[in-house]
Amino acid sequence: MSDVLKLTGITKAYNEGKPNEVNVLRGCDLTLAEGEVVALVAPSGSGKSTLLHMAGLLDTPDAGSVEIGGQDMTGRSDRRRTITRRQDVGFVYQFHHLLPEFSALENIILPQMANGVSKKMAEERAMHLLGTVGVDERASHRPAALSGGEQQRVAFCRALANSPKILLADEPTGNLDPGTSDKVFEALMALVRGTGLSALIATHNLELAARMDRVVRLEDGQLTSE
Fold first, then answer.
1. Are 182 and 219 in contact (CB under 8 A)?
2. Would you give the DSSP letter of residue 35?
3. Is 133 in contact with 104 (CB distance < 8 Å)?
4. Burial 43-66 (b: 16+ CB within 10 A, else e)
5. In this structure, what is the dihedral angle of CA atoms 136, 190, 86, 161, given to the nearest 10 degrees?
6. Are 166 and 134 in contact (CB under 8 A)?
7. Backbone φ, ψ for residue 198 (5° rounding)
8. At what angle are helices 104-114 and 148-159 packed, to 10 degrees?
9. Is residue 199 over pLDDT 70?
10. Three-class SS of residue 48?
């Protein structure tokens, strides 16, 4: 089984070289195998969002390397990084960030069309994904007409719209009540397992973390396996 994501020696500091320098990541190493779902457990303010941004090419480390699909992205142009991010990485956040003026279906169609997929094919995939998470009957509704759990399910579908290799999720159920959180997490896992992609999911919920393949903990800027 090959690694789809490999982080080596990732270091990141803010206000670098200044008296108030904050070392957020201190030589983090992480591999994510094909089809593997890994929980990233960390207290608030520990740098988990920063680590996810490095993994998803939204930010660059001060030192270390990021490999996606065996390709080292160190020193690559912004254009190359953007293409890789758009094609190979899907993001889910604590808040859904759906476009309010578009329906659930349109929110999933748009990123596909931006990637060159025809509207017909994009709509077929969008409806398939919505059906997988049980909200296909809400396809024509705008985000404001959906419950919090439904909004997040649509956000999951949007993240997977372009068939990425990797899903990066930052507290994807953290804004939901416990009952809804459990159901939405099950929907997310059904999507991930059904598509066979790899996922790195940050959560403070140890019960949810235990249901993934492996748990890594970020503390004092370093990663340790559990």
1. no
2. T
3. no
4. eeebbbbbbbbbbbbeebbeebeb
5. -20
6. no
7. -95, 150
8. 20
9. yes
10. helix
Which tokens in the block code for residue 35? 């089809």
User: What SS3 class is residue 145?
Assistant: helix
Q: Considering just the CA atoms, what is the radius of gyration of the chain in Å?
A: 17
The number of beta carbons lying within 10 Å of the beta carbon of residue 199 is 28
* Residue-wise pLDDT tens digits, 85-119: 888 999 988 777 899 999 999 999 999 998 889 99
pLDDT of 206 > 90? The answer is: no
Taking 90 as the threshold, does the pLDDT of residue 181 lie above it? no
Which regions of the chain does DSSP assign to beta strands (E)? 3-14, 22-33, 37-41, 63-68, 71-72, 89-92, 166-170, 198-203, 214-219, 222-225
- Which contacts of 73-82 are long-range, i.e. CB under 8 A and separated by 24 or more positions? 81/57, 82/57
Residues in the chain: 226
Those residues with Cβ within 8 angstroms of residue 44's Cβ, 6 or more apart along the chain or in another chain: 204
Residue 168's pLDDT band, with cuts at 50, 70 and 90, is: very high
pLDDT of residue 16: 62
User: Dmax of the chain from CA atoms?
Assistant: 56
Q: In terms of C-beta density within 10 A (0-12 exposed, 13-18 middle, 19 or more buried), how is residue 8 classed?
A: middle
> How many whole angstroms separate alpha carbon 84 and alpha carbon 225?
28
The neighbouring-strand residues paired with 214 are 38
Crossing angle of helices 119-132/104-114, nearest 10°?
130
